[in-house]
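Job type: complex structure
Entries:
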Amino acid sequence: MAEPLLKVENLVKYFPVYQRGILTKKKVGDVHAIDQISFAIGKGETVGLVGESGCGKTTTGKVILDLEEKDSGNVLFEGKDIHDSLKSSSREEKLALRRSMQMVFQNPYGSLDPRMTVFDIISEPFLIHKHIPRSEWRDRVYSLLQLVGLEEYHAERYPHEFSGGQRQRISIARALATEPRFIVADEPVSSLDVSIRAQILNLLEDLQKKTGISFLYISHDLSSVRQVSQSVAVMYLGKIFEYAPVSQVFDTPLNPYTMALLSAVPIPDPEKHTKRIILPGDVPSPVNPPPGCRFHPRCPYAAEVCRTDEPPLRQLGTSHLVACHFAEKFA
Amino acid sequence: MSAVVELLKVEDLRTYFYTEAGVVKAVDGVSFTLNEGEPLGLVGESGSGKTVAVLAAMGIVARPGRIVSGKIFLRGEELEHSSEAEMRKVRGKRIGYVSQDPNSSLDPLFTVGNQLTEVIRTHFQLTNEQAFERGVKLLKLVGIPEPETRMKSYPHELSGGMRQRIAIARALAGEPELLVADEPTTNLDVTIQAQVLDLLRTLGRDLKMSLILITHDMGLIAEMTERVVVLYAGKVAEEASTHEIFQSPKHPYTAALLASVPRLDMKANLIPIGGGIPNLITPPSGCRFNPRCAYAKQICVDQVPPLEDIGGRRAVACHRWREVDLRRTP
């Protein structure tokens, strides 16, 4: 198998929780935001990361890009550990690594500086990375605008003059300005209107076809994940529960949580009625996750072993990874 | 079979907001009818006027908004919007309302019990103790564990799903005949959304309560409703049964909306709708959808299409519905 572009190995990130007195500060526990997760993204591939709020999907994206410091584990980009590289290498090498990995944020209203013109926003990476001579800036900005479906005259405008969908296009253009090979797209369509979402999803797919970029597509919206991803990782309380090619996750899920998640999504077709699995209760607190399988208090199939032993992520079939003691039963 | 009862009828409702930038025609001539026991969906994107239309029907329009025209009938009686005292008897008592965001619809400074008993005592002559007991029963009804303890909790102590259940319990406190749920699950995770939808469905069945569901999610519409009104930029684009809306949409906007939504059960070829939602201070002339419509002709720019009754309880506002074939490519 070819070396994947990005490899995540046993990545862990805890956030400490403190109890504060007037003069004292006592650590009372940890939020287990991500707990020993591993996956890989190939060249030109999109991996979808799905899960409910608080499952650690955004933290995963940020730790991969070193926007949050990791606690342990490795992130390898083209075979090199990025956290080591960012610590020990020269400034030029660090910048080169930063250029190759970018992020598109959820909220295009918060992620664009209202005081900067679109030209300034998109050319700011050139200013920082100095990888493009100033004489070429204008042409570059125009071609980036064109690439994301905007016009040249938009460059002189300010973010408030744009709609949400157009703003998201601007932030995608900004992410593309450094010619990255990998982009973390964190819920890029969830703050947009339904009729606009398809525009952005299609844009991401087109960009991938044109430039061979890889994406980590983070979303809670399973339908859009199916639309853009080739592989899907399902997260629950900081753990990957299932990781497989998109059709396997959606058509033959092997983890009861994935099954419940899929059955909960309403399908826009009144003729199709899926059998809905309704999970009792809420997602438990990630500060003290339940022992054994983290899903056992809500799982309709939970047995004694689930209360005590944590199921490892194991391989079933050729490419289906699943963390459940009873996955064979569902195959 | 019992005769069809028209529970709510909205006729030519117009609600404008008089802002400094100009007059925003948020709801501009909207009519629809809700029959008893026939869950109705109001679909539209942000700014389509779906929330304003329903709130205006209940007589809740904040300044600078004003109901410019329109008649609202509840079981055939016309509601007097001018009389605040009359409307107070309708709100909560006959029409319950659940808003999108349970975080802001519950008061953070009062316990769940306070907020429930306040509503109960507004509608019924009860002592505090009786109202408390009734509140506990309501919490049980919406599936909240340990209702006695929860009555003493503050909203921040509860999860989003629980808060939405409490908001629903409060809307039910006056025992309304109609429940309006305005994007009741947009802020919730999918597994919690499934719980809330299930609750709404059982309530409708057990309490014989009619439902108006406001949403932009075509999946919810397919699952929860029997009739649909599609709104675009403050006007009704199309009205039909849910089955017909999905099988044979007659308005280009409905068809385009359906073709642009990603689906869980297959990877479809998404066809986005170009452009954006129009500005309602200076809406496009003629049909408001014409700048984004693939089938627009000169007449669509020149004339406003009327909402035409096309038989079989269907209505559509499009000049070209007869000639254009919108059948979805599978």
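Summary: Chain A has a mean pLDDT of 91. The longest helix of chain A spans residues 194-211.
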